[in-house]
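Task 17 of the worksheet. Students: predict the tertiary structure of the chain below and write it out as structure tokens. Keep your answer in the requested format; marks are given for formatting as well as content.
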Amino acid sequence: MSTTFRPYQPNQLFLLPPSPKDWLPEDHLAYFISETVDRLDVSVFYRCYEGDGRRNCPFDPRMMVKVLLYGYATGVRSSRKIAKKLHEDVAFRVLAAGNFPAHRTIAEFRQRHLKEFEELFVQVVQLAQEIGLLKLGTLALDGSKVKANASKRKAMSYGRMKKEERRVREEIGKLLEQAAAVDAEEDRLYGEEARGDELPEELRRRARPSGQDRGGPATIETAAGGSGPGSGAVRRRQAEKSAWGTAVQTEVWGAGGQGTGEFYRSRQSDHEER
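Model answer:
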């Protein structure tokens, strides 16, 4: 009896638009970060864009904040790696919702809003502690509930709460310093604009002429260094075709009153005889 495999059709198109909510489990960290940021006041990130109609449609700061928070919470410090994951990682794509900011845009957004972003990061970590999360991605939390008063019956005293807040701020400050250092080092290695993972020039299909992508005789000749059986004949045929095309183009424009059809027939006959 033959084995029945599960359906696998890589080229199958979706009959209806897929929902990003179906791409991740309901309890995924990306959803927690997204919902938390949506409930926090992020108006400070928008103030610098107000009244400046010259800007060329900047990315939504709320989206940028979510992407950075998720990246740093999951151990991705490099702006280049975050930009790459926006294309390859499902969680990043869910948070970005079809946006793909470049690594320079991500790094500049963090630098521009460093203080505001650090403050928001602290709030997200505190909310994670408050609901009893032991981890926020790769960030280890103590799981203690943070309360807003100093009652002895509460899980954390006021003094301990302030001490914990200082610890969180220090850890986040170090994390952001590491992110800036990683970006600076990668800028030094690859240049400010380069991603660092570009394919070599000879492998970039989009940069090749269209006639070479199909692996025609010219491409094979170049790759083989002109060697191999029949290579001389191939080169001669190509030279004849090139000379014929050049002669046709020259004489068509200079043919004067000669009919185009008659000219082509005469030239073709001469070429076949040769």
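Marker's comment: The first strand starts at residue 135 and ends at 136. The chain has two domains: 20-199, 212-273.
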